[in-house]
Design a protein that fits this description.
about 300 residues
Length: about 300
């Protein structure tokens, strides 16, 4: 691939926000390098260091000297959406590929991305996301997959329209973002609900969102995410985040979502259905986060403080 072509005419922009996950980022960059050997598609890779305090900054500087298509930016404001928007403004590709720093990619992902936008009618695409491996290169145990607390996106082997995107890995045409704007920087620093908010605006502007099984990423298994404690905290924060941008009736949420899930939880607990208990508890915590966030906002408090 000619360096001048890379610099002047990227077809695809890869955008990666990162914070204190040097080892994970290194695995992702390695998978990107392997997938781009002897390729003809012009591409740029933009990594935004979101004020990391480990050795990510030094490592990225060394990588950018060795790999000409890699551009490293730094965003001092803590927050995933700040980092993503900074990269969008700096990017030049027609297709923007957003990916978290804790995935790795199938070797054909780049050709498949360009091919799927040409083959389908969708304006934004959700790739398939499957479980990867843990730090010891061990795969997930299928019978307890739900306990790893990773996003798994698998709607089967055929492309189809879907409701929205999942932020871990998503593909969007530049023209879409030029019309609907970037990520909402008023949302919490963690980035929760940013993908849902963006999907809503994409659909509201008349664009289409589809799923493709041909573009595949693998989410790493991180022991710090395992178990119900992480699941409860994560879902509660998602509920808090959603409370910042929606104003559903609190009474309606209690009656239609929280109360039924509480009943299901106790029923599943009595029946010994462990996976159902686990997943229902996540729904309860998400609803409780939303309701608590709404109450705090009503009294003028910031639910994230």
């Amino acid at each position: 691939m000619d360096r001048d072509q890379i610099i002047t005419a990227p077809r695809v922009s890869v955008i990666i926000p990162t914070y204190n996950r040097r080892d994970s980022l290194e695995r992702l960059i390695q998978s990107l390098k392997l997938s781009m050997q002897d390729r003809s598609i012009p591409v740029e890779v933009i990594v935004v260091d979101n004020a990391s305090t480990d050795d990510t900054t030094l490592w990225l500087a060394a990588q950018s000297r060795e790999w000409p298509i890699l551009r490293c930016l730094r965003e001092g404001r803590q927050g995933k959406n700040f980092a993503l928007n900074k990269a969008i403004h700096a990017s030049r590709g027609d297709i923007l590929c957003f990916m978290d720093d804790d995935i790795v990619l199938a070797s054909n992902w780049l050709e498949a991305t360009v091919g799927e936008f040409a083959r389908t009618q969708y304006d934004a695409l959700q790739p398939r996301v499957l479980p990867g491996v843990d730090p010891d290169s061990q795969p997930a145990q299928k019978e307890i997959l739900y306990q790893y607390n990773i996003p798994v996106v698998d709607f089967g082997d055929a492309a189809r329209a879907i409701k929205g995107l999942t932020g871990v890995f998503m593909l969007i045409k530049r023209q879409v973002l030029e019309k609907v704007g970037g990520f909402d920087e008023a949302l919490p620093a963690s980035g929760y609900h940013g993908d849902t908010d963006l999907s809503r605006r994409i659909k509201g502007a008349g664009f289409s969102i589809g799923y493709t099984p041909r573009v595949v990423g693998f989410h790493e298994l991180n022991p710090s995410r395992y178990g119900s404690g992480y699941a409860r905290r994560s879902q509660y924060r998602k509920g808090l985040s959603r409370s910042l941008s929606t104003n559903d009736s609190i009474f309606a949420r209690i009656m239609t979502n929280l109360a039924p899930n509480l009943l299901r939880y106790f029923w599943y607990k009595m029946m010994g259905r462990r996976e159902k208990v686990y997943k229902t508890e996540k729904r309860i915590m998400k609803e409780w986060g939303y309701i608590n966030g709404r109450f705090q906002r009503r009294f003028g408090k910031d639910p994230w403080m």
